[in-house]
What we know:
By secondary structure, the protein is an all-alpha fold. The protein has helices at residues 3-15, 19-26, 32-39, 42-45, 58-78, 81-90, 98-114, 116-126, 129-146, 152-176, 186-211, 215-239, 254-258, 262-278, 280-291, 296-315, 320-323, 325-344, 350-377, 384-412, 417-445. It has a single domain (58-445), classed as MFS general substrate transporter like domains (Growth Hormone, Chain: A), CATH 1.20.1250.
Amino acid sequence: MSDEQAIFIEQSADAEPKIGDLIEKQVPGGNPASGLESMMAPSTLAPQGPPPPPDRGFHAWATVAGSFLALFVQFGLANSFGILQSYYEANQLSNLSSSEISWIGGLQQFLLFFGGLFSGRIFDSHGAHILLLPGSLIFTTSLMLTSLCYNYYQFILCQGIFFGIGSSLVFHSSIAVPAQWFARRRALAMGIAVSGSWLRGTLWPIALSRMFNTIDKIFRFFSYFRSESLFLLTLSNLLIRTRLPRRKPAPWNASLQQLKDIPFVLFAFSIAFVFFGLYTPFFYVTTNAARIGTSSAITFYSLSFINAGSTIGRLLAGAGDYIGRMNLAIFSSLVSGILLLAFWIPLSTAPAIIGFSVVYGFFAGLYISLIPACIAQISHHHEIGLRLGLAWGIVSIFALFGPPISGALISNYGGGAKGYEMGGMFSGVVVLAGTVFTVGSRFCLNKEVFAVM
């Protein structure tokens, strides 16, 4: 043995801690036995919880694909309600005002978001499939029933209530589960998943414009949509996988505890105010296009232009992972509010309708896709479903009344330019008010102006 090796072994032996030293350090000057017991206590050996999100892997991206399919089906019809509204006004519900017909879509939106108050808690404790499977069945059944509707109360029950409940179960299970698999690339993953809803909204108005000529064609449309939805939702159920283990359900008063977190409360109310006005163009862009005398093709496709812009915006939401998710949410909602005030009001030509639809859809879609990522960013992993559900529950109240208020403003002025101007002013102001709440939430978390938040 060389002298260098002997010196190394001697230094290693001196550096190696002895168990007696560890016990005495654990209980200074105390009983070695009690120190050993404390080292072997169950609390120190208990698992520290699930590992962090992997941000990659087959199951992670398969879950994103499953969420994409679920939202492709669920939000496709919801985002095409502007086309349905125009069709109902000209056919089965021609004796009703725009505001009255919009209650079908408003009730559908209300139940979609309100269900989060219950779904979020269930998701956190039991996973996605306990919501997704029954939601898929209710959703497809509601489509069959809607195809048989002729009277207003029937549409309220089938498309407003029944469809809204099924949509809620599908939405809240599929929107929350990707956050369990991603942390660093969370905005990208959620943006891809949520883009499915707007891609469907781009395609459906084009198809609907060719199918909604007679009553029997609407029956065939809903029958086809039911079969396709059942197939895609089945694939979604097979692809989606909950990463976190089942846990004891949070107490019902857990939602009240979340209201003590000021940044979360401010952000939840910011979403509510933005949604109060954000969907006005989705409901009324087709009727506005018809008002100014555009061709029937432009009238129907105007909603496709909004959804096409939204699809691009959602796919680019991944930029929030680098410049800040809340920063990007503030920017996108600010631009959406300005567009409503500055460009929705003076629309008078077909090119203006197309340009507004694409640009507004881009920023609206960008904002909406950032919501789950922002809430997940300010939440513990086992609170994501609960907080998303609570936020959507607050949003539901505003989403219920937003489109009908805009519709009432339009109807009160005879459906003319002044009515659409008043509806645009109302929507733009409340969207900008929501932006102020988002700014407050962001600076509660970090007061540095250029921080990545």
